[in-house]
Structure to design on (210 residues):
């Protein structure tokens, strides 16, 4: 009887089995001003992960003038929240469109609804979740001091964003903590001091992400 092989042609090169690297996904969570954006840039530079931002994906889809983008724009224009399924499908599309096997998903999931939609559509948990833990007064000071000219950086809006984060995002943080895949980073200190903690976390995943 002929033996059945589960290896695809793309996995066999020159008579040798070429192991396809497993997909690696890291979520990055933290309040506004926690410094996660700066640290994401350092992670990408150091480990070569593809950086995906849910907000950027939505904005890019709107800019593409696609039918899906027009639908997203209409939802935002009337003040409604974009359905989690739409955001997750954009993330999944972005993951599928690159040959890279390692991804850094920034600022997602923001809510329990986001998390449930991701698990339902993708069918898997992330490999790790980084949570940049920062005192509220430090986050407020950082936001006030940065010179990005963002319209959502005024005092009242900052307070609202921090409150929304506490109410909607902390349950997500707690969920991943209970699952044992959350790594809390003390987000107070210099960029290098904070990144040293990040490197310690990623060191355990070196065989996958290299």
């Amino acid at each position: 009887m002929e033996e059945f092989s589960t290896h695809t042609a793309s996995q066999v090169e020159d008579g040798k089995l070429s192991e396809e690297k497993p997909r690696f996904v890291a979520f990055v969570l933290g309040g506004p001003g926690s410094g996660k954006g700066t640290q994401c840039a350092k992670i990408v530079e150091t480990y070569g992960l593809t950086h995906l931002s849910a907000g950027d994906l939505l904005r890019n889809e709107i800019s593409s003038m696609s039918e899906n983008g027009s639908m997203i724009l209409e939802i935002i224009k009337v003040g409604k929240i974009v359905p989690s399924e739409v955001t997750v499908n954009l993330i999944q599309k972005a993951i599928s469109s690159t040959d890279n096997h390692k991804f850094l998903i920034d600022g997602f999931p923001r809510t329990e609804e986001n998390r449930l939609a991701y698990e339902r559509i993708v069918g898997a948990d992330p490999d790790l979740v980084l949570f940049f833990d920062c005192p509220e007064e430090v986050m407020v000071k950082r936001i006030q001091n940065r010179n990005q000219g963002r319209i959502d950086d005024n005092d009242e809006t900052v307070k609202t964003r921090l409150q929304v984060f506490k109410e909607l995002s902390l349950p997500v943080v707690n969920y991943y903590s209970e699952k044992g895949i959350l790594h809390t980073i003390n987000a107070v200190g210099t960029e290098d001091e904070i990144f040293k903690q990040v490197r310690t976390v990623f060191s355990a995943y070196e065989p996958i992400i290299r």
Remarks:
- Strands lie at 12-13, 16-17, 24-30, 50-53, 102-106, 128-133, 182-186.
- The chain is about 50% helix and 15% strand.
- The first strand starts at residue 12 and ends at 13.
